[in-house]
Amino acid sequence: MKIDYDVVIVGAGPAGITAAIYLKRAKINCLVIEKDTPGGAIAKTSIVENYPGVEKIKGADLAMRFYNQIKDLQVPYEYDEVTEIIDKKDYKIIKTKKREITSKAVILCPGKTPKNLEKENSDKLIGKGISFCAVCDGSLYKNEFVSVVGGGSSALEEALYLSGICKKVYVLNRSELLRGDKTLVDRVAKKKNIEILYNTEVEKFNIENDHLGSITIKTNEEVKQLNAKACFIFIGYIPDTNFLKTLDILDEKGYIIKHEGCRTSIKYIYAAGDVIKKESYQIVHATSEGAQAAISCIKDLSMGD
Questions:
Q1: b/e burial code for range 154-181 (CB count within 10 A of at least 16 → b)
Q2: What digits encode the pLDDT tens for the residues 90-145?
């Protein structure tokens, strides 16, 4: 059986790229497959201020630094989407939309997909006023009234970014308190064009000329219309693991179950980054897990059976 690569890495976020760096330095023949933007979620983050050695940097710039490092190391990289992985014990088959690849091992770092609100017209308006990335789409709404749904750190970071572009930013928060980092809460409070609407839920997205025209909201049982031409939703994520359903490595919520050394229950399959269940999702955690997965993989491959 011809084996194309020693290791295939699924996902080019911080975990996947770190794994690739460690594997390449160990002279392991590896391939990185990514279906979206190199850098994963950080490529769509406005500002990163908590990564050691980098006091403050745009998310897209940090993502490019990650990507350039594996490019300089000449790590093979493909833009493609993995649709299934088949465990053949001695080797793995990685099916993508473009082809089939074989490898001795796989490191899974596919990340997570943003959740949408299950409200009327929410699916119809994705890309037409509903977005999950302020950095990507914020410039489309310069000097407009927009909204952000969520009260965590991601929602507050995006609200701050949008406040420098848009005329008014409404933050729609379901509870009486914001859950985000206190530093972000304080910064939001100082922005005159950000208004927090507490105890507020979206009832319906209203279509106008095939685009979001306004939002029907309920605040303290009062239903009213909110003038907002865009809605940026940050209410959590779903692990991007649909392609792994034939493998018995997922928990009930779709996260990969990780064991010692970032190994899964299947030999020569490893997992790292936001796709594994953990208490905190930070860039530094993802890079650490990517390194651990690669080190475990290198050790296991060197030992063989």
A1: bbbbbbbbbbebbebbbbbbeeeebebe
A2: 999 999 999 999 999 999 999 998 899 989 999 999 999 999 988 888 999 999 99
Which phi and psi angles does 21 have, rounded to 5°? -60, -45
Domain spans of the chain, in order of start:
5-113+237-303, 116-233
* 165 vs 151: CA distance, rounded Å: 20
Task: Classify residue 202 by its DSSP letter.
Answer: E
- Whether this model's pTM surpasses 0.90: no
234 residue type, one letter: F
Q: pLDDT at position 249, please?
A: 96
Residue type, 197: L
Question: What's the CATH class of domain 5-113+237-303?
Answer: alpha beta
Rounded to 10 deg, the angle between the 182-189 and 153-163 helix axes is 30
CATH architecture designation of domain 116-233: 3-Layer(bba) Sandwich (3.50)
Chain-centroid distance of CA 59 in Å reads: 12
Per-residue pLDDT, 278? 84
Q: Which residues pair with 205 in a beta bridge?
A: 215
Q: Is 118 helix (H, G, I), strand (E, B) or coil?
A: coil
* C-alpha triplet 105, 38, 55: angle, nearest 5°: 115
What residue ranges of the chain have pLDDT lower than 70? 305
Separation of alpha carbons 242 and 111, rounded Å = 12
Sheet holding 194-197, edge to edge: 130-131, 230-233, 145-149, 168-172, 194-197
Retrieve residue 204's tokens: 């319906």
pLDDT score for 281: 83
